[in-house]
Specification:
This protein is an alpha/beta fold. 50% of the residues lie in helices and 14% in strands. The protein has helices at 25-32, 34-48, 55-67, 72-89, 94-109, 137-150, 165-178, 191-205, 221-238, 256-269, 287-295, 316-323; strands spanning 5-6, 118-119, 125-130, 155-160, 182-183, 209-214, 245-251, 273-277, 299-303, 311-313.
Length: 325
């Protein structure tokens, strides 16, 4: 998707898109929520096909939504709004009930996104990627780099998770697979120095996009916040408007734990967008509603599988339609 605009068009010819067969994104999103749909939302569909809902039906709806990891607070909000509309509009037809539920679900997911930055010629678009180790952060970075490459953008990766040697090596392997350079230092190096060198290299090379990986350990929240804020400050010394996007990667299989992680990172580094990884691996995809409702952050991407092309752009209407299919 277009993520920024330039004050004038680039003069150089952009690199050719990566020559790979694209994955069918729409099918990928539908398949990624198949387990959630079959486990919980199909039962909600059966409930609504009965027609007018009694008190026991409303209680069953609440229970199913909570079991699907929609969360207690978000579930109560959704059901309260739905009941109010049903009462005020006199809705009893099963199809009308179902469509009203879909509308209320979409309204929760349609969180306003930050304004698109307008960049000067020669200024790279900087994405700072955060998230707990093990959530699929590095894989998401590779998929994102692949997506930008397919759009004809030049990309550079920064291995600023210097806490784990495996994190640096993993990013370098993914960089080779995608065909993008990786700026890395030795294990234990200053993450801010890595970010600085990566942005400097991108500016000198005329690179379009810089994606910065970061450490995700949570054993001390204070240290995490300090480190992430330092990386942000270092980037801003070179590009005051950067990072232009702070993407938090959440493992959909962790359920409500993912919501708590999101709160910590949002407090630490001003998260602007979310990527929901491993959605295809859980029957509790309702976590998407809890995160957007309770944090007010938009979901930009959904991981739909393990291949490089398995990253779908999130669309609230299509997501709800897939759940309620």
């Amino acid at each position: 998707m277009p993520f920024w605009s330039r004050k004038k068009e680039p003069q150089e010819t952009p690199p050719p898109p990566v020559e790979e067969e694209p994955a069918p994104e729409a099918a990928g999103l539908e398949e990624s929520v198949a387990r959630t749909r079959q486990t919980f939302f199909s039962r909600i569909g059966q409930l609504f096909r009965r027609g007018g809902l009694g008190e026991e039906d409303w209680e069953e709806l609440e229970a199913l939504l909570i079991q699907a990891d929609v969360g207690v607070e978000t579930t109560l909000h959704l059901v309260q709004h739905l009941r109010q509309r049903v009462r005020e509009e006199g809705i009893r037809d099963p199809e009308a009930l179902y469509q009203t539920l879909a509308q209320e679900m979409v309204s929760i997911l349609e969180t306003p996104t930050p304004p698109t930055p307008v960049l000067e010629e020669g200024v790279p678009f900087v994405v700072l990627v955060v998230g707990v180790n093990g959530v699929g952060k590095t894989t998401t970075i590779a998929k994102l780099a692949q997506r930008y490459r397919r759009e004809g953008r030049t990309v550079l990766l920064a291995a600023a998770d210097t806490f784990r040697a495996a994190a640096i090596e993993q990013l370098q392997v993914w960089g080779e697979r995608v065909g993008v350079p990786v700026i890395a230092h030795q294990t234990g190096a200053d993450p801010g120095a890595v970010a600085f060198d990566a942005v400097s290299a991108a500016i000198s090379r005329g690179t379009d996009v810089v994606i910065v990986d970061t450490a995700g350990r949570l054993h001390t929240k204070h240290n995490l916040m300090q480190e992430l804020e330092k990386v942000r400050r270092v980037i801003q010394r070179q590009i005051p408007s950067a990072p232009h996007e702070v993407l938090l990667v959440i493992d959909a299989t962790t359920g409500q734990n993912g919501l708590q992680q999101a709160r910590i990172f949002a407090a630490a580094v001003q998260v602007t967008h979310l990527a929901l990884a491993k959605l295809d691996g859980t029957a509790k995809g309702g976590i998407a509603f809890a995160i957007t409702h309770e944090l007010g952050l938009p979901i930009s991407y959904v991981g739909t599988g393990e291949q490089l092309n398995d990253l779908a752009e999130f669309d609230a209407s299509r997501f709800v339609k897939a759940l309620l299919a």
